[in-house]
Amino acid sequence: MSKARISLKGVLLNLIVWVFTILWLLPFIALLIMSVKPYTEVILHGWWSLGGNYSLKNYLEVLMNPSYNFLQGIENSLIISITSTVIPIFFAAMVAYSLTYLSFRYKTLLFTMILFFMSVPQQMVVIPLFNLYVKLGLNNTLTGLILLHSAWGIPWIAFFLRNYLKLIPLSFVEAARVDGASEMSIFLRILLPISIPALIAASAIQFTWVWGDFFYAMIFLPSPDLYVVTQRLALLKGEYHIDWGLLSAGAILAMIPPLAIYLAFKKYYVRGFVGWGLKG
Amino acid sequence: MKNLNKESKIDLLLFLLPPLVVLSIFVIYPIIGTVVLSFISKGTFSLSNYYEVLTESIPLKALILTRLEPTPPWGALIHNAVWILISVPAVVLLGMILAYVLRYVFGSSFVLGTVFLGMVLPGVVSGLVIRFMFDDSIGIFPRIFAVLGVPMLSKTWTIYPQTALLALILGSIWLWLGFSVTLYSAGLDSIPSSMIESALVDGASQWQIFAKIIVPQLRPVTTVVILMTVMWVLKIFDIVYVVTGGGPGGSSTVLAMIMYMYFASSLEYHKAAAVAVILALLTLIPAYWYIRIVLKGERE
After folding, report:
1. One domain, residues A22 and A155
2. How many distinct structural domains can be found in chain A?
3. Which residue, A89, A223, B28, B82, is the most exposed by fewest CB within 10 angstroms?
4. Could you report the per-residue pLDDT of B113-163, keeping only the tens digit for each?
């Protein structure tokens, strides 16, 4: 960090960056204002005029009007996101443990495959899975989507956790092995507890991704009563006429859970992203 | 190294069998399935799906349009390429400069947190925000251009073929900058301050330090930022679907969107599979690079 020296250049720099930041934030501020104002007023005076009426009518409309069914969407999204976070974390931790502490042939192959799966586009798996789901009766069920999200999360979480485990001294595990502990109990009793920061980071990011998913949901949840919140929100937009009041209220409701998680675990979250991108 | 005795084999089975079974069913099997589907046409093995999707000339489904026009539609492949050409330099430059400047700015963690918001939002929400920013009656960009007296750009950008793609690209930069700034900030933290201090002692200017020390030191980060951005842009879907649906008149289609159209609108699964494979192959180029970097880091 620089020394506390007040110069014209420094002040100018601060000013530029802060104007930039406010511009960056402006769309969110606008969204927030529009969501608590009647849309007719927004059209007449613009969202930037702070006078006029404020009400929670848009929120009530989005949440209570049965044709939008937003509450159901939020509920479906919560069920899917929570389960699709817990399941892959556990599986991925087992993969990460094997990659770090167990020795076996084809270890590099497995690791390379994991890296490869991390980069595969979602579009690459949906067609055969769709056919399979139709046969198994998993199409149009939350379970089907949960299973897919869980499997999809394993590779990147495994990679992420393995990078974390690499930082833990090997002597931890070796000492336990000397004491005669089985690998499974070392994994459950020693490594999972010391990996809690990494588990939190991975959970926070996985939750946000699953919550934000739109593509998988559109393919595997075609029936409206199973729609997740992102599908509900897209529907709210309407084809020709856009009611920005309703839409911004819906958008804010849809971003509350990921935003809350981000704010609560900010440090873990950002570190998680850095670890995902940088540490190899 | 432990020998592969019986006990450790059981351990391996215990640890790897459950995840591998899940991965086989939901990731490996469908990948292979998609490749196979893409080569089957009318019950026989052929390349005709690829031929047909690549030569398709309806703008809403085209991958490459051969007629040369100054404005979109150009076809999804070209749109993706233009998207990469604009967003990668923007994300790298803005990210690096912002991360560097932030070290001298008051309240930098708030700035970082704000710019990072784009990474946290659901794609559909981001899409709506982009649609809103470019709306003629309430959006920011058209307002600014109305004041500047540019009628071309004071309309709703997303509903005109000349500006729809550009609006999406600018929006994507707004979203993705958080990723690059965060990585660059972490990269800057790992540059030893003694390097910069000794350069200062030698009388180097701020600009020289940035160009001669910071940029070269950040090269590994830049590589990762470029690769990740390219992969992200290739796979982009949500914001396009929500903001323009690929329109108007196919002027903002992207590969993932075309795949979805074949799949959901026209139910041509084999052609959808062919587009998916093309998309996956393109993603494999930066992915291969990235995997190589990671594996190289392993050996060191």
Report:
1. no
2. 2
3. A223
4. 889 988 899 999 999 999 888 888 788 888 888 888 888 888 888 888 888
Asked whether A47 and A114 are in contact (CB, 8 A), the reply is no
| Whether residues A25 and A100 fall in one domain | no
CB interface of B with A, residues 62-101, below 8 Å = 98, 101
ipTM: 0.90
Are A98 and A20 members of one domain?
no
**pLDDT reported for residue A177:** 85
Predicted TM-score (pTM) of the model is 0.91
Q: Do A115 and B105 touch (CB under 8 A)?
A: no
Residues of A in contact with B107 (CB under 8 A): 18
Q: Are A25 and A120 members of one domain? A: no
Q: Which tokens hold the place of B235?
A: 């796979």
Domain formed by B50-191+223-299, architecture:
Orthogonal Bundle (1.10)
Collect all residues of chain B within an 8 Å Cβ-Cβ radius of residue A118: 287
Q: Do A237 and B242 touch (CB under 8 A)?
A: yes
Distances, alpha carbon A118 to alpha carbons A49, A135, B99, B121, B211, in Å: 46, 27, 27, 20, 34
3-class DSSP state of B106: coil
Q: What residues in A contact B120, CB-CB < 8 Å? A: 208, 255, 258-259, 262, 269
The total of other beta-carbon atoms located within 10 Å of residue B205's CB is: 11
